[in-house]
Design goal:
Blueprint (H helix, E strand, L loop, with lengths): L4 H33 L10 H5 L1
Amino acid sequence: MGFSDGVKQRLAVVIELGKTVFHYGFIPTVLYLGFKKGADPGMPELSITNLLW
């Protein structure tokens, strides 16, 4: 059973949107989760300036 052309086009758009969201959202999500967890005991505090330097 094959998909119609309209379904294939919508599926392609959804997959492309998913790739774009993953591409631009992965690193910020990892950074957010790391800052939310905080530093391990004995390590310096996390801050944006530590991230940049």
